[in-house]
Design a protein that fits this description.
By secondary structure, this protein is mostly helical. It contains ten helices and six strands; from the N terminus they run H-H-E-H-E-H-E-E-H-E-H-H-H-E-H-H. Strand 4, helix 5 and strand 5 form a beta-alpha-beta unit.
């Protein structure tokens, strides 16, 4: 476990580090609420002149958030824009996905888009496992970029209120949420940890040894470079627990079998095919 005090110490050091860490450029997708928003706030607080591109469905909502961010750090630049910043050219490029890293499970390899096996649990399993497999593939194809898939634990957000029907949302709010109260990850801690995952040298890109500035904020004492999904330190793709530990599932029987049979490549090929369908290709 990486203690939250060490995480916060690392975040607080960002202002005094080289420009690519003290004044980073970041792209946030899904940061208009919940974990994405609290992470965005922490980035504004702990850096000098950040540039943040915020992708969201409602420009009015993003502008509201931009007003809040300017109060936290008036020197930052916060933009609602449709575009594709060139991530691989950044000095310290990281992709952080907050979903279910370490919770991988069996997927339907002959039905990756779940046309024949659709269900809520199946969607969750596929989203988590295919995300981890895709990150492993992408880290090999893009050795200058680090990929971190995180399980944040139980976090009190409004996902059920905004994403589910009234009966489901009410059941969760009045029956499930009280039961998990004592197991929740504190909301303030979540934002701190995601900023740590995105900036710390604990999660370097595969090629960071030849690009020292890509290694990130110096590691707190006694905190080592993380083992990647494939069990090798600094391999560029990582599974992180809610405590910023390395999730062991990457080297477990399931993921090892998928790796040996080339499933990461199959998953990414399928993903690109889905994008082409959406684009009408």
């Amino acid at each position: 476990m990486v203690a939250i005090s060490l995480v916060r110490s690392s975040n607080e050091s960002l202002r005094n580090l080289p420009r690519h860490l003290s004044s980073p450029t970041a792209v946030f997708v899904g940061a208009t609420q919940g974990i994405g928003l609290v992470t965005l706030r922490q980035l504004a607080i702990h850096t000098v002149t950040p540039t943040c591109y915020i992708v969201g469905r409602s420009e009015a909502r993003v502008q509201e958030i931009i007003g809040e961010l300017k109060q936290l750090n008036a020197r930052g630049t916060y933009v609602f824009v449709k575009g594709e910043p060139l991530l691989s050219l950044a000095p310290n490029p990281h992709v952080v996905s907050v979903m279910g890293g370490g919770k991988e499970n069996t997927i339907k390899e002959d039905d990756l888009d779940l046309k024949r096996n659709y269900g809520v649990l199946a969607c969750a399993q596929h989203g988590i496992t295919m995300g981890s497999l895709a990150f492993e593939h992408l880290a090999r194809q893009n050795p200058a970029v680090a990929f971190v898939h995180i399980y944040p634990g139980y976090v009190k957000t409004n996902i059920f209120q905004s994403g589910f029907s009234w009966p489901v949302a009410s059941f969760y709010r009045y029956f499930i949420q009280p039961l998990i109260y004592f197991f929740e990850t504190p909301f303030a801690d979540v934002g701190d940890r995601q900023l740590f995952h995105a900036t710390s040298a604990r999660y370097p890109p595969l090629s960071s040894s030849s690009k020292p500035e890509a290694q990130g904020a110096p590691l707190p004492q006694a905190v080592p470079v993380a083992e990647g999904i494939n069990g090798k330190k600094g391999s560029g793709a990582y599974l992180a627990t809610k405590d910023s530990d390395v999730a062991p599932s990457g080297t477990g029987k399931l993921m090892t079998d998928y790796r040996e049979r080339g499933v990461p490549e199959k998953v990414w090929k399928h993903t690109l095919e889905m994008f082409e369908k959406v684009r009408g290709g």
